[in-house]
Each structure stands twice: as structure tokens, then as C-alpha cells.
Amino acid sequence: MFQGETAVTLDEKGRVAIPAAHREAVARVSGNRLVITYNPFEHGCLWIFPEKEWERVRDEVNALPSVKAVHRNLQMKLVGAAAHVEPDGSGRVQVPASQRAAAGLEKKAVLLGMGNKFELWSEQAHLAKIRETISEEQITEDMEDLRL
To answer: Which of 17, 45, 71, 125 has CA atoms 20 to 30 A from the CA of 105?
Structure first.
């Protein structure tokens, strides 16, 4: 559904524009209802889900037994921090100040289409992540049969 990398700018109010190429798909798959939450696995990145996809993720995460600390941590970062947003007439969504601060998002950022969701990266975190290489020791069994 969503793919591609776009350099974006957060305005002085903390809004970021969904790229024009994705706006029709966002409207179609989510009725312009999106959810922004933390990426619990990587610092400097927020996840932006279409509402229907978010509901699936939310329900799976909430079904985890909360007796385990790692489950509670995941639930807090994903569900507890989730913010519902809708693009305005210019296709901009308001990124909550607390999420911007925690992810280190400033004026320059990168929006990645990742299939079922977007990832909104701080420019610095994105550059650091993109410069990492995958070593032979990191290749998993699942990756071995990929024809890249």
C-alpha cells in the first residue's frame, strides 16, 4: 500500500504534510483517520497507521498478558501513546508535542511508506539507520532465500 521515502518538514506548529502521492490512498483506506504512536523498537521514529490497520495492531498488543513487563512496555508505547489525527485541508497532520520531543523530531524529517503504515523519522536518526549495513552474521534464515 504505502512505499517510498520523502523528505518532509515539520512546521512551527508540529504539523507534517502527508505527501500528495499518498493522500488518495490514505483517504481510501482509512477515511482520513490516522493514528500516530511510538516505534517501540527504534529511537527517533514514530509510526503512523491508517485507523483500520491500527485497530488490528492495538487489539493484538492489548491481548498480550500484562503480567510480563515487556508486554506492559509495548502496550504503553503503542496503545497508551496513540493519538488519533486527521489530515487538514492541506494534507497536514498534527504530531503531538510529547511524541515529537521523545523521537527527537525537529524541522527536518523523513517519511517512509512501509506497506501497512508510515514511519516518521527524525532526519538524524534516519541518516544513522540508513548508514548501518547488514553484516553476514545478521542474516536470518528468513532472509537467505530472498532474491535481491
So the answer is: 71
Contact 53, 130 (CB under 8 A): no
- Whole-prediction pTM value? 0.93
∠ CA 96-101-105 to the nearest 5 degrees?
90
| Structural element, H or E, at residue 88 | none
Residue 139 lies in a domain: no
User: Which stretches does DSSP call E strand in the chain?
Assistant: 2-9, 15-17, 34-38, 45-50, 83-85, 92-94, 108-115, 118-122
The 10s digit of each residue's pLDDT in 63-79 is 999 999 999 999 999 99
Per-residue pLDDT band for 52 (boundaries 50, 70, 90) equals very high
Q: Which residues contact 77 (CB under 8 A, 6 or more apart)?
A: 37, 38, 40
DSSP one-letter code for 79: I
Check whether 1 has a pLDDT greater than 90.
no
CATH code of the domain in which 53 resides: 3.40.1550.20
Structural domains in the chain (count): 1
Residue 81 DSSP class:
T
